[in-house]
Structure to design on (151 residues):
């Protein structure tokens, strides 16, 4: 098990959800901390507040792309490829995760475990795969995850 997977497991054991874990990993890679952002990410876990809608790993992955390539302050522009990066992640998620689990909604992925808010092993695999895919997309777009955004 690599260091990233161990860190994901540690964060899960601390009670963080899939979306929070993705952003925590991204922030840590950048050497940053943002409790307000992590708190806001709470609402994406379990498919939008455990409503079973779009998987929090996907929405968290899109937010992670935004952390690196989105617009954050006046006068700043989002990365030229931001929307293409999001599209690439969504297509990958639909093909890989959706095909394997019968859809991209948390209810489809977790089934009856959703009601008890019990996370299964599939969630760890999905979060790990999504984090790896986000990093690949960033690198292919000229953004080094450890270096953050240039300009």
């Amino acid at each position: 098990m690599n260091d990233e997977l161990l860190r994901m497991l540690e964060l899960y054991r601390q009670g963080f959800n899939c979306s929070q874990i993705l952003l925590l990993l991204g922030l840590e890679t950048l050497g940053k901390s943002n409790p307000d952002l992590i708190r806001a990410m709470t609402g994406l876990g379990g498919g939008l507040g455990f409503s079973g809608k779009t998987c929090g790993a996907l929405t968290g992955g899109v937010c992670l792309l935004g952390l690196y390539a989105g617009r954050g302050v006046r006068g700043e522009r989002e990365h030229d490829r931001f929307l293409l990066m999001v599209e690439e992640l969504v297509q990958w998620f639909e093909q890989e995760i959706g095909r394997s689990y019968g859809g991209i909604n948390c209810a489809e992925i977790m089934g009856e475990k959703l009601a008890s808010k019990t996370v299964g092993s599939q969630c760890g695999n999905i979060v790990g795969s999504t984090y790896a895919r986000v990093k690949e997309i960033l690198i292919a777009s000229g953004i080094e995850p450890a270096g953050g955004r240039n300009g």
Summary: The chain has one domain: 3-140. The chain has a mean pLDDT of 91. Residues 50 and 115 are 8 Å apart (CA to CA). The two ends are 35 Å apart (CA to CA).
